[in-house]
Structure formats: C-alpha cells, structure tokens
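Thread: quick sanity check before group meeting

JM: Hey all, I'm pulling together slides for Thursday and realized we never actually wrote out the predicted structure for the chain we discussed last week. Dropping the sequence here so it's in one place. If anyone has concerns about the input, flag it before I start.
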Amino acid sequence: MELRDLRMFLALAEELHFGRAAERLRISQPPLTKHIQQLEAQLGVMLFDRNKRSVRLTPAGSALVQEARRILSQAEVAMQVVRRAEHGETGTLRIGFVAAVIYIGIEKLFARLERDLAGVETVWEEMGSSEQVEALRHDRIDLGFAQVQTGAAQMSAHLVARTPLVAALPATHRLAGKRRVDPAELVEEPFIVIPRESAPGYFDLVVSTCLQSGFSPNIRHYARHLLSVMSLVALGRGVSLVPRTLGRAALPGVVLRPLAGAPAQAQAEYSVIWHPGNQSPVLARALGLLGVPAGK
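JM (edit): ok, ran it. Output follows.
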C-alpha cells in the first residue's frame, strides 16, 4: 500500500465522485479508477459501492478513511522531521569544554547557541583539551571549546577568545602586594600546573613564558583543571600562571597580578574545535552561529 494510493482513496472518499476527485488530484479519471481497483485488490475488499449514478463508501471503506488520514498525517510529520534534521533544526549537539572558558567572556556565544538552536538538544561535558581531541576523533562529541593550537591533531579550529596570563599567588605571598610581577621573580617558587597530557597548550604556554623570562619553572604540583590549580594556590602549595579572566572566579586566598616584562605571546588562546569529517547539519549550523567562516 503506497501513500499515493491512500491519497487517491481519501480524495474519492471525501468527494464521492470520480470526476471531482480526479480534478482535485489533477489527474484524469482512468488512472484514478485503476488505482482504486488495485488498492481494493491488494486489500481483498470493496471500498466503494459504485454505479453510473452514485459512489458510496462500504463499511470497509469507512474504516479505511480514518486509518488513511492517520497514516498520511504521520507521513507528513515524518517528512517535516527529516527536512528539519537535514537543515540542522533538530537533533543533538554534544559539546566538550574546559572549565576556563566559563570565565573568558564568551557567554554571548553560549547564549546564542542555546537561543538560536531551538529544537536542538545541547549536551555539555567538561573535559580537558586533549580529552576533547580524543572525543572528537572517536565521535563522542561534535564540538569543543579548548586551548589548542589551530589544526591540532588533525582537528579544525577557530579562535574565539584570547586572554593574557597573570601570576596566581597565595594572598599571603611576599609578592602579593605588588601591582605587577616579573615572571623572573618566581624563579625559586614551586609551580602548580595542569599535566601536559591533559592540556598541552596551557602547559607549553606556561613553560615557554618562564623560559623566555630566563628560567625553567620548578613544577611541583599538578591539577586536572585551572580551578583546581587556583585552589592549590589558595592553600599555599605554590604559584602558577593562569588566564587573567579566572579572576572572575573570585576564589578566596588567591591574588592575581599582571605580568611585568612578559613576552607578548604570553596569552591563553581558546578555540572552538571540531572534526572536519563530521558532516552533521546541526554542527554546521552551530559553527555558523559561532562565526566560523563557511568552508573552514
């Protein structure tokens, strides 16, 4: 039983006249008659009592009317769902993010995703930058917000925010009262960082900033997230270099001081990253909302 046959049957059931039904369907009468006969043969019942003067529904025909309307309605809904999915208007967008992006002033981007992807379910999961790359590679997420270099590990990336590093010091530290801190003044201090395997972009940035200031950092402690780094600083376990925007976390016991004489490239860069082979219409739509140029 084809949808076309049901549409022809329903037109005849509502018009009860072959000529009017054929005109409504924009076909000639013989094809309509043939389809009705084929449908009756397929079902093994008579759907209409008809003669030269009238056409009437049989009990079987009356029963089919409601079913035909239901089936055609469901088919229309299915077609609309498929069309919306094709244009990225329905579905799920799986997003990974490092905690630091919450504080880097891209709330408008997040709000735009939630507002303009109405009908799309967004699922957010916190994970490190390297974890995001692996999750993208194995199709566990569609989109990530991470601190990575453009094109890292065969992923596509688009810069969304840049923020300078600052010194994170315990509130009781000898340098806490200074307006600015030269990285070289931290040469003897124990450093707290995120392991390179979790955040290679951040780790390399901290190390390179110290090396360009004339020393290799004395890394003593590790934490999985920047907020955990800040917590260890607050406990007096050491110092760190963190993105300036983490000051918005207002963690007690920690002071952030701008760097004096730091290299110009001592800035944390955050990018939206995705797998170039992901052809999801939802992803394509999200990238457009995030300002990623078409075809990037």
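AS: nice. The mean pLDDT is 86. The two ends are 46 Å apart (CA to CA).
JM: adding both to the slides.
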